[in-house]
Backbone:
């Protein structure tokens, strides 16, 4: 008996908002492992149950919240499929813990009784007994246990009250799984004919799936009453069974039995009776705190004012609070790149590691503080229950373009960065609505576009005033943001009417009571999501950065390098005749950096260096690519140098600024560095076409900005969309449609502008 | 005499008499406990007039006017 006992898995399930997550955290002590179910982006959370005896570990698997076993969203489908043992890689539940909210007993028991009927050993965690009592309902756990035939554990999970008793009971059960006898139970008094038909299907299921015999009765009921399940599970249910179910439905219909509602009504009738029997009505404390708060937060005027203020605060926070950690990270990345450069010495490996890998990946990691803050805000909105109110307030506006109120927050988040926005779409039930939201979210102007807008506006937009007090530059910036919003809503409207048509499922939104958020849990929540962002997007970004580095570095141009080496030697040798090789000359320049009297020489050497990287880029694959795409972008008024910028910023938009500074031999430019931007702006303004006219006219600037508003130039977003939609189809479609849109609208801007200018 | 749920004024109570929502969209509403014979209370309309918030079986539920027009109450 040396083999370790098979892993014991307890599955935690229940309605949304029943405090299931609080219970999970209390049971596992916040040391959950968060991942995804195979092939879908539904969060898979599991953790080890605290207080295990050595050698008897218990794994708790937290299923997504669900209202019933007839799923409406991907989350709910996973919950059902785990209970039906259809998910590969998830062990059979040895114990099911159903969480039920005592303050919302009927609807929670609806689901709980469905789960109990599945025939697993089941415990009922009766949560939020305190809230129920405040509302004037005292639930008798012993009576409920008798009525349901399963052990009932009253608790207040958020305070840890009663959790220990459940924990001990689970360990006791895990030690001796045979000790608990499951008595098959049903909580339906079905219409007689419905019951007969269900039984016939049950027998078929038992023969078809002998290993899941225990589930047959419950599955038969679902098959008969759940409208979409037959069509959406053709791969599971063979044709004869489907035919039998369809025939049974027809027979019921002709007998005047509504097969869609019969089982639901029967279960609610039973649940109502149980709830009445086990609940004692006491004097309620009057209007609850939550109701009073709701009167303010969903007030006709104040509700909207507070909502707008909250959103403004969130943005202000994301932009201002995130700034210093972002600067620190940026500096850290630069420092690391320098250290690596120094340690490796000049060469391809140095360049690849310092510029391709560290600076490239660093450019993405720099956004981590913004993403963390945004997730923290979202966690706060979710954990307090305000998120449902935001959807309630905004649903009317979103319904105009065919979306739900639930799409509002993801789109708003995308102003900071489309990645957290896209990840926030997981709360949208309808897969089509979720997809539409994902497809249009990157049209909202994200923070990476800001440096591009800033440079182009400074270079191309005259400093005139409109209406006496509004600066044209500021108005242009506002215009770009508005253009993004209009574009996103317009495309959503279009997608909902064409590609992803489909009657919108009715909005059925629970407005749960407000809760006090637990900071530790919120931080944990934020970090879990941020980690996924880092790991998933990070790997792809690394690959693309290496590719881009390669394109910008190769082919090597030895003649060009030799020429520049000679110029460097000519520059340095008069000051130090001992210098013989270009490497020595470069080292000497580095050493002179500390000496103020050599400043002019160092500056000249730097200028030479930048000229060299500019020449190199022009001859590199990226430069050739810029030339190659010139015919494509000429109708937009762009030349091949802008082409290089467009190609380079495919990976990330803000790269445009640094690429342009390399192309035009401006000193190293930080996107946020005002002085560097100013000198780039001057160079851009001085740039002339072969015929002598300026390149960066008002029209070119506007056209380029319009292009950046609509173009999908963000590898991380592509990677995240691939992850979230589970395939390449949608990210590629998104890339194609956004690029096409960007081109067409830039083309129209340029051509109409030229026509108007006469 | 039955009337649409959406015609109730905030604070008034009624009992669901008939659900006219097409069968394929009805299931989830039923599973949320909104059945014929269920008492409900209309809490409020959202600031922009849609959706509507009701109290059913002790909890708060929100649905669009479009659906609320198809839930008849008495």
Residues:
């Amino acid at each position: 008996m040396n083999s370790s006992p098979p892993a014991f898995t307890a599955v935690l399930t229940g309605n949304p908002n029943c405090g299931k997550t609080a219970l999970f955290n209390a049971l596992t002590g916040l040391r959950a492992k968060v991942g995804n179910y195979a092939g879908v982006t539904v969060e898979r959370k599991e953790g080890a149950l605290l207080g295990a005896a050595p050698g008897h570990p218990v794994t708790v698997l937290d299923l997504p919240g669900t209202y019933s076993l007839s799923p409406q969203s991907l989350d709910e489908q996973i919950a059902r499929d785990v209970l039906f043992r259809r998910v590969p890689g998830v062990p059979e539940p040895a114990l099911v813990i159903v969480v039920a909210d005592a303050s919302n007993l009927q609807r929670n028991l609806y689901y709980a009784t469905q789960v109990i009927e599945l025939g697993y050993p089941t415990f009922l965690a009766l949560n939020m007994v305190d809230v129920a009592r405040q509302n004037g309902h005292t639930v008798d756990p012993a009576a409920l246990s008798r009525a349901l035939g399963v052990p009932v554990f009253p608790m207040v999970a958020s305070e840890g009250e009663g959790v220990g008793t459940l924990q001990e009971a689970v360990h006791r059960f895990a030690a001796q799984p045979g000790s608990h006898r499951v008595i098959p139970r049903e909580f339906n008094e079905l219409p007689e004919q419905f019951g007969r038909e269900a039984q016939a299907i049950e027998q078929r299921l038992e023969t078809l799936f002998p290993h899941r015999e225990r589930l047959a009765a419950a599955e038969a009921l679902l098959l008969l009453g759940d409208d979409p399940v037959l069509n959406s599970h053709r791969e599971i249910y063979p044709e004869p069974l489907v035919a039998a179910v369809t025939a049974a439905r027809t027979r019921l219909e002709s007998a005047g039995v509504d097969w869609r509602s019969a089982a639901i009504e029967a279960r609610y009738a039973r649940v109502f009776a149980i709830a009445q029997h086990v609940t004692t009505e006491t004097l309620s404390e009057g209007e609850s705190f939550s109701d009073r708060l709701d009167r303010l937060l969903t007030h006709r005027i104040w509700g909207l004012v507070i909502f707008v203020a909250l959103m403004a605060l969130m943005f202000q926070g994301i932009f201002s609070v995130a700034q210093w950690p972002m600067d620190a990270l940026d500096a850290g990345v630069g420092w690391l790149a320098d250290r690596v450069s120094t340690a490796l010495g000049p060469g391809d490996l140095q360049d690849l590691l310092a510029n391709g890998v560290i600076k490239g990946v660093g450019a993405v990691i720099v956004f981590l503080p913004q993403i963390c803050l945004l997730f923290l805000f979202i966690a706060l909105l979710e954990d307090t229950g305000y998120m449902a109110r935001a959807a309630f307030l905004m649903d009317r506006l979103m319904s105009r373009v065919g979306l739900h109120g639930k799409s509002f927050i993801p789109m708003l988040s995308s102003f900071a960065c489309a990645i957290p926005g896209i990840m926030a779409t997981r709360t949208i039930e309808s897969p089509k609505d979720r997809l539409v939201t994902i497809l249009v979210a990157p049209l909202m102007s994200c923070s990476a576009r800001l440096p591009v807008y800033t440079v182009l506006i400074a270079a191309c937009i005259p400093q005139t005033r409109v209406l006496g007090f509004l600066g044209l530059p500021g108005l242009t910036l506002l215009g770009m943001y508005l253009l993004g919003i209009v574009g996103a809503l317009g495309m959503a409207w279009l997608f909902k009417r064409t590609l992803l048509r489909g009657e919108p499922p009715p909005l059925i939104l629970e407005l749960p009571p407000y809760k006090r958020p637990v900071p530790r849990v919120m931080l944990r929540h934020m970090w879990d999501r941020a980690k996924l962002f880092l790991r998933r997007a990070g790997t792809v970004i690394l690959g693309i950065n290496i590719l881009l580095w390669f394109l910008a570095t190769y082919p090597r141009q030895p003649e060009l390098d030799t020429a520049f080496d000679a110029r460097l030697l000519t520059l340095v040798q008069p000051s130090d005749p001992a210098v013989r090789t270009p490497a020595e000359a470069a080292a000497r320049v580095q050493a002179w950096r500390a000496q103020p009297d050599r400043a002019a020489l160092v500056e000249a050497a730097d200028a030479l260096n930048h000229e060299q990287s500019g020449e190199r880029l022009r001859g590199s694959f990226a430069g050739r690519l810029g030339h190659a795409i010139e015919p494509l972008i000429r109708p937009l008024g762009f030349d091949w140098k802008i082409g290089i910028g467009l190609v380079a910023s495919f990976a990330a938009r803000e790269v445009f600024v640094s690429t342009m500074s390399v192309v035009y031999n401006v000193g190293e430019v930080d996107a946020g560095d005002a002085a560097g931007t100013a000198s780039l702006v001057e160079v851009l303004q001085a740039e002339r076409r072969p015929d002598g006219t300026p390149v960066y006219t008002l029209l070119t600037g506007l056209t380029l900005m319009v292009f950046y508003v609509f173009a999908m130039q963000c590898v991380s977003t592509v990677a995240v969309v691939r992850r979230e939609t589970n395939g390449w189809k949608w990210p590629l479609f998104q890339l194609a449609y956004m690029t096409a849109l960007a081109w067409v609208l830039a083309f129209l801007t340029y051509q109409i502008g030229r026509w108007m200018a006469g | 005499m039955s009337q649409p749920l959406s015609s109730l004024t905030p604070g008034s109570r009624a009992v669901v008499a008939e659900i006219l929502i097409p069968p394929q969209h009805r299931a989830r509403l039923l599973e949320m406990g909104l059945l014929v014979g269920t008492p409900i209370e209309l809490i409020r309309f959202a600031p922009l007039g849609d959706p509507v918030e009701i109290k059913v079986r002790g909890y708060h539920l929100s649905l669009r006017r479009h659906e609320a027009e198809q839930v008849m109450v008495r």
Remarks:
- Chain B has two helices and six strands.
